Amino acid sequence: MLSEYLSIKPEIEEALNNGLPVVALESTIISHGMPYPENIKTAREVERIVRENGAVPATIAILKGKLTVGLDEKELEILGNSKDVVKASRRDLPFIIAKEMNGATTVAATMIIAAMAGIKVFATGGIGGVHRQAQETFDISADLQELANTDVAVVCAGAKSILDIGLTLEYLETQGVPVIGFGTDEFPAFYTRKSGFKTDYRVDSETELARALKAKWDIGLKGGLVIGNPIPYEYEMDYNNINNAINEALVEAENNGIKGKEATPFLLSKVKDITKGKSLESNIQLVYNNARLAAKLALELSRL
Questions:
Q1: Element holding 156 (H helix, E strand)
Q2: Which of 120, 182, 187, 291, by CA, is between 20 and 30 Å from 299?
Q3: d(CA 45, CA 120)
Q4: What percentage of the chain exceeds 90 in pLDDT?
Q5: How far is CA 135 from CA 2, 38, 47, 132, in A?
Q6: Residue 265 preceded by cis peptide, ω within 30
Q7: DSSP letters along 247-285, please?
C-alpha cells in the first residue's frame, strides 16, 4: 500500500537494505528558504558533503503527488526554480498527493517521509517552533509535534532565531523531546552560537550520540531528538545586529498581516535584505555544518 505513494531512488534503497548510513535532507530550504540559484548550489553542495563524510544523501520532496526520497538534477531544478511548489507540512500531504502537485517538505513532512523510508538521521538548517506572541496567535510549528512522535534524529543549528526560543524549548520538554548540544552547553540560535538557554545534555562525540539514539529507540521511547549543532565561529553573526534585524522584520510582517506558513519565508528573506545578504551566507554555512555532523552520526549509528 505504501509503495503506491512512496518512491525511493535505487541507490538509497540499496543503502537502506544493506544497513548503510543515509541522511535525509529537506526541500523547503530549496523552494522557500533561499533565492535561486543559491538554493540549487546549496542543495548540491549539501549532498556532496554528506557523501564526503561517509553517508548517502536523500533529499526528500513530493513530485507530481509522489513522496520522493532522493532527487536527481532535473528534480532539484524543478523545486528550486518553480513558483507553484507547495510548502508541505503534515496536514498538506494527503491533498498534495491527491492533486498530484509538487511539494517542498518542511521539517515535519521530511521526518514523516524519512521514517516511512527507514531513515533515522536528518540534517536541516533550523527547526520550527513557537512563534513570538504565540500566547495570542497560537502559532506553533507542526515540527514540534512531529519531533515528539516520529523516530528521526534532527541535526540543526537550533531553532530559527525569528522564534521564541525559550517557549520552543519548554514545548519540547513537555513533549519529552531531548534537546542536545553538540559540543556546547547552550542551545544555538541559528545565526548565532548563543541563545541564553541551556540544552538538556551536552554530547561531544558522534559515537556517544549514536549510542543515545539507539538506546532511546531500543527501549521504546518514541519520537526524535533535537541535536543543536552551533554555526561555525567564522560564520556567526553579531548577536545584537541579527536580533535588531529580526525585530525589524517582525514589525514589517505584522504590519503586512503575514502569518502562518508564509511567515518564516518572509522573515528570512527580510532579514537577508536588512543584513545585506550576510544572513544568507550564514544560513548556507550552518546547513553545510549540519550535513557533516549528520553524515558522521548516521555512519556511527550504522555501526551499532
A1: strand 153-156
A2: 187
A3: 21
A4: 76
A5: 38, 36, 38, 8
A6: no
A7: HHHHHHHHHTT--GGGHHHHHHHHHHHHTTTHHHHHHHH
If you search the block for the grid coordinates 548556507, which residue do you land on? 284
**Amino acid sitting at position 45:** E
Alpha-carbon distance of 281 to 85, in angstroms, equals 24
CB 88 within 8 A of CB 62: yes
Specify the residue for cell string 562525540: 205
CB 106 within 8 A of CB 88: yes
pLDDT tens across 212-266, in order? Answer: 999 999 999 999 999 999 999 999 988 888 888 788 877 887 788 777 667 777 7
Kindly name the residue from 47, 120, 146, 160 that is annotated as catalytic: 160
Question: What SS3 state is found at 127?
Answer: strand
- H or E segment and range at residue 210: helix 206-218
64 is catalytic: no
CB 70 within 8 A of CB 117: no
Q: What is the pTM of this model?
A: 0.93
Catalytic residue among 26, 47, 146, 206: 26
Q: What is the pLDDT of residues 37-87, one digit of tens each?
A: 999 999 999 999 999 999 999 999 999 999 999 999 999 999 999 889 999
Cell matching residue 196:
541564553
Q: Is 214 a catalytic residue?
A: no
Q: How many Cα neighbours within 13 Å face the side chain of 243?
A: 12
Task: Encode pLDDT of 125-151 as tens digits.
Answer: 999 999 887 777 788 999 999 999 999
Supply the CATH classification number for the domain 2-303. 3.40.1790.10
Residues 86, 90: Cα–Cα separation, whole Å: 12
